[in-house]
Amino acid sequence: MTVLKHLARGYRVVYAWFWGLVALVFTGLMVSLTIFGPWVVGTGESSAWGLVAGQAPAWFLFTMGIMLATTGLPVAVANGVTRREYTVAAGIFTVVSSVLFGLLILVGHALEILVYRANGIMAALTEPYPAPTLATFGRGVLQHLAFMVTGYLIGLCFYRLRVWWAIAVTPVAMIPVFAGNDQADVTRFGGVWLVLAVACAAGVAAYLLARSVPIRSKKA
Amino acid sequence: MTLGIEVSELRLRFGEVNALDGLSFRLDGGKIYGLLGRNGSGKTTLLSVLAAFRRQTGGQVRIAGAEPFENAAVMRQICLIRESGDVYESDYVRTVLRTAGELRSTWDSEYAQRLAERFNLPPRKTVQSLSRGQKSALGIVLGLASRAPVTMFDESYLGMDAPSRYAFYDELLADYTAHPRTFILSTHLIEEVASLFEEVVIIDRGRLVAHEEADVLRARGVSVTGPVDVVDTFAAGLTVLGEQRLGGTKAVTVYGTLEPEQVRAAKMAGLELGPVSLQDLFVHLTSEAGNR
Q: Which residues of A touch B (CB under 8 A)?
């Protein structure tokens, strides 16, 4: 719990900055929609929120995963935390972050629906609006989970292995990202399990890399 | 709390290089130990293994009777401060101290605050914007305020200026007296720190060269001062580590303990005998000839 609290306290500011920025862009778009009509929602798109919060949160969590591995792990071990304790805490933190981001995406959709309805945009959409359902939430959580675990794994690859080895294994390590992007449709049973399986495999691979990783001096 | 450290046949290889090559010694704990060695002798590697920063490839390490690597109970009682620092470079000083407080159960926040003020550490500056001396001071604060039963400083105060280093030595002694624990100081500033050491461990090429109480080690040599010709006559046949000459007076550093009759002869000849510096002994013990 100590390490988890430390991670939560350390990353809450970064998360707040990210969502603050997303909220700012989203607010600008909603104000623009209210004033000028649905110009921003182009052909084949029905949700401005989908544009703002579609890929960005997932890739943001990917970079957070890299940071967890490359800066968080050495500092934790230097403060007397075992690699195992840190990996468990980082795993729980990854799940919590994924769920939190999934919830925030749902909230964004809910707010957008309110704005659309208030301005009569919903009826003018040419594409059906992606309803904020449990499936949307689940898809978001799985996608975020896959991205963050992948970031953690790739961060560890570069921290532990020689750079050319790390580059060589990156395409394999990226599999959860590919799966999370294309297969995380919770309405398809196989998709859920596929994403979960590759995310878990990435998590196990990360633990195997982390469990005996030397904490090198920065000058080395 | 004092924790003993036992190292047995410790080995660590980096490719073809034996960084640690069958190193064995035992520290009872509750003392200030000096860890001396030339560049590349294996000091940092040894400390990294003791702190569970890396795992050995052979042999055993026991701290309080247990292997430290991935041992939560042992690791949280060890603190290693390296010159490079193990902190987020983009963090503020206050964040670095808060992180240590969150992760270390033995952390003393008030003491950390006091030390930060003493070493003029600006809490609102990021680590990367600190000068080398300030980064070293941050390491000192992290090490001392950790109050870890085994605290090790690996050349971590080299970047500090002389007044700051002396302030560190004062703080170390005061805190060691108030909260006895095991300190291991690795340093090249031997003469400056020598008075702090209760025991000295000297390693070279990953092997143990000497492990003795500091006073016993110092007694392994003697300085002989007097007229040039008398000193030369007396020193003939002895192992001379170094010599200095000023006009008709000469001082030589001799390795080895003098027999009572040699001491009597020296005094009869009007020669002055004195203690030898730890640094001279270290240079001799780790030189090519000294290792044979």
A: 2-3, 5-6, 9-10, 71, 74-85, 211-212, 214-215, 217-220
Chain B CB contacts of A212 under 8 Å are: 55, 69-70
In a domain, A220, yes or no: no
State which residues of chain A have pLDDT below 50: 220
pLDDT score of B287: 78
Residue-number span of the structural domain to which B233 is assigned: 221-275
Name the domain count of chain A: 1
Scan residues 217-256 of B and list those with Cβ closer than 8 Å to A: none
* Minimum distance, in Å, between the CA of residue B192 and any CA atom of chain A: 25
Distance CA A194, CA A204 (A): 15
Pairing of β B150-154 and β B78-82: parallel
Q: pTM of the entire structure?
A: 0.88
Q: Is residue A186 part of a domain?
A: yes
By the 10 Å C-beta count (0-12 exposed, 13-18 middle, 19+ buried), A130 is classed as middle
Span B42-86, pLDDT tens digits: 999 999 999 999 999 999 999 999 999 999 999 999 999 998 778
| Residue B284: pLDDT over 90 | no
Cα distance between the two ends of chain B: 39
